[in-house]
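Exercise 7 asks you to align residues with tokens for two separate proteins.
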Amino acid sequence: MTLAGAGGPRAWFRRLPVVTRLVLAVAVTMSLVLTGTAGLVYWRVQTALDRQLHDDLAAYQQSLDRALRARTALPPGPSGSLYQVLDVHGRVLGAGDAVGRRALLTDAELDAAARGHAVRRDVGSLLPITPDTLRLQAERVTAGGAPRIVVAAVRRGHRDEALRELLAQLALASGLTLIAASYVGYRTARAALRPVERYRTAAATLADGGQNLRLDVPADRDDEITRLGHTLNRMLDRLEASAVRERRFVADASHELRTPLSLLRAEVDVALHRPRPAEELTETLRSVDAEVQRLIDLSNALLDLEELGSADHITRAPVRLTDLVDTAVAAQVRTAERAGRALTVDAADTTVDVDARWLVPALGNLVDNALRHGHGTVRLTAAVHEARLRLCVTDEGPGFPPEFLPRAFDRFARAEASRTSEGSGLGLAFVQAVATAHGGTAHAENARHGTAVTLDLPC
């Protein structure tokens, strides 16, 4: 078997272009339909013509039988009709001028007619055209006490000519209909697949490095092609968002990791420049350890943000709101005690459907920020109203600078007063990412006596 023939006709058909396959499918289907329709029309017309021909032949046969029994002259039949009278041995006893003594019956037909069976037969064919096409009928008749075989025949010329004309017209009509249907199928397939070709061209442009590419999907209809276009556009949105996150992650990492790495290099270079006392080396190692921890915290924060941004969905599960809040502030209670600060919690005793894996560290970040940058009592309130969870952390500090509020949740954004303090500027960005992943919002504002950061989430 050759490679071209591998798989058979079905595999060959599947390798054809879609438009070609559609046109072939339309052509084959229309051929079957037209063939069936033409066959039905031909059968109905042929049946009607044969019935008329049979009626004429039967009437002629009966008139011959009556005349023979009455011993009168045999009557003329329909135009072009023939007759022949035979004895049981096949001898011609009488015949019309057009047929003479030519044998119309075969030996087997003669024998069957002599035994009393009716014999019917067509002489000549419809296609190819033959002369003297007849339909004959032979019966045994008793006349004057002697058996006779009467053969009556009528010409089929008009019937055959009508059927040939019908075949020609059906073939012409079917051929023209098949050509028209194939053309319409081709144009329809091309028109239906034209948007797909545009989508393919656009995808090729994207593969070649195109940016901000979106498919032009008509808004005035809803069919399989437009739904495909909308799906591809959503996929392009996801791809672009993923690319933006990737570029942002690389930019953030390179920007923020440069400083601690430079400090580490500087500390090590100074320590290696000349022999140092043990006290100075210990101090250098403490500084290096602090910078390494800062790198770890920063890397973890960046990875958490990237995971939140790239996840398709969060995993919600029922959890007691009081347990959630207690877990979130557990690590901050000692910090507040060491700083001589009060930390109060007011949580409703209810169950919420959230992802505690992300919400607990988000609340911990808010409380930690309030303890490090605020003053006075830190309050965490948690309440549920109309299927929405509202979490609010407030302090009694000076609040955010007004110009900083619009970008408080941006990555690495830090107010001027906090730039010399610990922190990477990713805490509030992480909080907003958690709120967005839950389908909620995060909001920061300066209250009358300090700062308030609020999370509003569906639960």
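Second protein for Exercise 7:
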Amino acid sequence: MTSPLRAVILDLGNVLVFHDNGLLFRKLGARAGLSPTETESRLLATSWTPANRGLLGAEGLRREICRSLGVDLPMDEFNALWNCHFTVHEAVLPRVEGLVGRVKLVLLSNTNVLHAAYLRPLLPVLERFDSLVLSCEVGHVKPEPAIYKEALARAGCAPEEAAFFDDVNEYVQAANALGMRGHLFTTAQSFDAQLKALGL
């Protein structure tokens, strides 16, 4: 017998907001005089994961990325470039709003302090979530089991009582391995159908 669904755990990027990393690499690269490919390579090799683990605060993140790209940008300019690639996924927000009060609603995201600070005001619905599990605040990143267990603890439910949605299949599979009901997020329309299949 299937356990009752008590929690929905949602990813942030490419679920609640779109993030065009290609645009980010192009804009940062243009400012540093580097190709998008070289910009991506340098960022992924140095600061990406430490930033997501919360090892770099806002100023530390600015310094580390500027160092890796060989450019020195003031914080205002850097922050604007660092967040240039986000667009709110308007179509999915009403469905998420409809979950408020029906299940525990938890955000589970690999992110850094500057992205988190930028996106919170753009997503008022986050204030209605029961908890926000941000990698930069808890020190763990997907697909590590510890960050999923943190989300479950905050939801106050067993793995089989939680549905998890993410656009990265590796992260969905990690949730399934813990006994959660993992679903690959693709579109707002598919999300709606997935929720209906779950009785929501």
